[in-house]
């Protein structure tokens, strides 16, 4: 017998009540990731508990004992992978993953196209922001202020060449 349920229960002991309920499938993994009231350690434990619940639900589903609930296992795994990203990357990842999780429910409706467009737009915006950040990054060894000694020396050298 596995002691995984005991580990999941231990993970729940030091978490806020809304995360410790037996129905962790009602909480979106993305909400755990962005919850400012939770420490990173609490987020990890909450997501581990959610993963355990999702795996158990998945097992029950394969054995024909499901109640029709979604397991959200993929969402939990994606949420866990975002915890080590910088805050702005987490924000974009949460938005995109939240939109993606709404796609199956919206299939066959007008909302599906809107959500797809929103995903594409957010991903394009994030790519553009990252590209801008890389373009504005100052190369190593370059002057960081307009009045740096290196820049002044370069200007003086240029002036010497001017007749």
Describe the protein.
This protein has 163 residues and is mainly α. It has helices spanning 4-12, 17-20, 29-34, 40-62, 73-82, 87-106, 110-136, 149-161. The protein has two domains: 1-84, no CATH class; 87-163. Residues 1-12 have low confidence and may be disordered.
Helical stretch tally:
8
- Main beta sheet: none
Kindly provide the radius of gyration, computed on alpha-carbon positions and rounded to a whole number of angstroms. 24 Å
Q: Spell the H/E element sequence.
A: HHHHHHHH
Count of distinct structural domains:
2
Query: How much β-strand is present in the residues?
Result: under 5%
Give the helix level as a range of percent: 55-70%
From the spread of the alpha carbons, the general shape counts as elongated
* Broad structural category: mainly alpha
Q: What integer is the average pLDDT?
A: 77
| Oligomer classification | single chain
The low-confidence runs, each spanning 5 or more residues with pLDDT under 50, are: 1-12
Distance between the termini: 88 Å
Total strands: 0
Outline the secondary-structure elements.
Blueprint: H1 4-12, H2 17-20, H3 29-34, H4 40-62, H5 73-82, H6 87-106, H7 110-136, H8 149-161
Helix pairs in contact: 1-4, 4-5, 5-6, 6-7
Quick description:
69% of the residues lie in helices and 0% in strands. With 163 residues, it is mainly alpha-helical. The protein has two domains: 1-84, no CATH class; 87-163.
């Amino acid at each position: 017998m596995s002691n995984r349920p005991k580990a999941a229960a231990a993970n729940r002991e030091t978490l806020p009540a809304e995360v410790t309920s037996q129905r962790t499938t009602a909480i979106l993994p993305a909400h755990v990731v962005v919850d400012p009231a939770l420490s990173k350690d609490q987020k990890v434990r909450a997501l581990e508990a959610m993963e355990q619940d999702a795996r158990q639900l998945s097992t029950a589903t394969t054995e024909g004992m499901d109640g029709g609930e979604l397991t959200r296992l993929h969402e939990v795994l994606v949420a866990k992978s975002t915890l080590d990203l910088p805050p702005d990357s987490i924000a974009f990842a949460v938005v995109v993953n939240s939109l993606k999780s709404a796609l199956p429910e919206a299939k066959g409706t007008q909302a599906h196209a809107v959500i797809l467009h929103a995903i594409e737009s957010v991903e394009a915006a994030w790519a553009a922001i990252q590209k801008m950040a890389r373009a504005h990054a100052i190369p190593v060894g370059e002057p960081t202020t307009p009045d740096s000694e290196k820049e002044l020396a370069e200007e003086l050298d240029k002036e010497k060449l001017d007749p």
